[in-house]
Amino acid sequence: MRLLVTGSDGFVGKNLCVRLRELGYEDVFALSRATPPQDIAPALTAADFVFHLAGTNRPLDVAEFSSGNVALTASICRTLLDAGRSTPIVFASSIQVGSDNPYGRSKAAAEKVLEEYGEAARVRVHNLRLNNIFGKWSRPNYNSVVSTFCHNIARDLPIRIDDATAPVSLVYIDDVVNAMVAFLESAAAGDAAMSAIPVYETTVGAIAAEVRAFKDGRETLITEPVGVGFVRALYATYVSYLPTAQFGYSVAKYTDPRGTFVEMLKTRDSGQFSYFSAKPGMTRGGHYHHTKAEKFLVIRGDALFRFRHIVTNERIDLRTSGEAPQIVETVPGWSHDITNVGDDEMIVMLWANEIFDRNRPDTYRHAV
User: How far apart are the C-alpha atoms of 52 and 37, rounded to whole Å?
Assistant: First the structure.
């Protein structure tokens, strides 16, 4: 299929063009303000599907709403009709179409133009009414509170919050792009179904607090629950605004005659991750826990794990090696230690199911 994307150099356009390329759509005409005027009509009339993303949202002159949203849309439709083309169109509209403001009225008028085109061309037109979109490549300090907060907080720049309780409805760029692609693929299959777009309801203050927590996590090593939903999308957005000088950051390294110990990541409800090294012949551990659980994975070297039941004195030995990965778990009520029985430095990954608390360490010295 030949595809055309208007506003291809904008926030949504960049993300959509990348996604189309990933899906194998190679014949994509990227239409932007830099496109020579004489190339526009031929590209439009050659397209089998149009993603109409171009528009005006913050003009210097309010009259630009009409020219940038309504007149541009009308020109696209007229070009297609004059060429006798019945090309499906996805239009990036806005939930503000019902609002009595210049922007909302211009989007509503553009939708009307597209609906009339659809009737005349006997083709489906999809007016995708979107909430505030956030994600990578959005322009900060422009019209997105999320990108502004992410950009500024990452750089220790001030942010402005007039009302922390002000509600915000958000959609994530990847979900928007997937919905648009669903229109394209459903049109090819003859099905008008579309994947739902999750809308995240939050507040200005909550966004700021979460982004600050992302930044603070490099010092505390405590990560937010970034694996699912809104926080996952917000974290990906925040990281995308990091200056290149912040792509890496240092963590503390603790060294003693036995080797080194480094903490990497801590979670609020699923423990923490770290690693340690041990020189040949060195032993670490020699304690037990009542509730704390740990998992060890030797990634380099040879290890001997020893266990002794603190009541019955039953003993268990386990040998593991980085050459044959095996996870070894500590068991409550069993003292345990680990010895480097190889000739080279041993490196071991460690997960504990709770963040270490010096006031309640649940760690008791007990020789194995």
Answer: 17
Among residues 106, 130, 154, the one where a domain terminates is: 130
Q: Is pLDDT above 90 for 355?
A: yes
Residue 172 is a catalytic residue:
no
What is the predicted pLDDT for the residue at 287? Answer: 98
CATH of the domain at 302: 2.60.120.10
The reported pLDDT for the residue numbered 325 is: 96
Question: Residue 13 is part of which domain span?
Answer: 3-130
**Amino acid code (one letter) for 256:** D
On whether residue 302 sits in a domain, the answer given is yes
Considering the entire predicted model, what is its pTM? 0.91
Percent of the chain at pLDDT above 90?
Answer: 88
Quickly state the pLDDT bin for 187 (edges 50, 70, 90).
low
Cα torsion 356, 359, 362, 365: sign: positive
pLDDT of residue 100: 87
Nearest residue to 134 via CA among 142, 126, 125: 142
The 10 Å Cβ neighbour count of residue 337 is: 17
Contact 282, 260 (CB under 8 A): no
> Where does a domain end: 107, 130, 153?
130
**Residue 295, in any domain of the structure:** yes
Is residue 202 in some structural domain?
no
Catalytic residue among 25, 103, 172, 249: 103
Residues ≥6 apart with Cβ < 8 Å to 47: 2, 3, 4, 29, 87
Q: Is residue 33 part of a domain?
A: yes
Q: How many domains does the chain have?
A: 2
**pLDDT, tens digit (0-9, with 9 covering 90-100), for 269-316:** 999 999 999 999 999 999 999 999 999 999 999 999 999 999 999 999
Residue 93 φ/ψ region, left for φ over 0, alpha for ψ in the -120 to 50 degree band, beta for the rest: beta
CB atoms < 10 A from the CB of 170, how many? 21
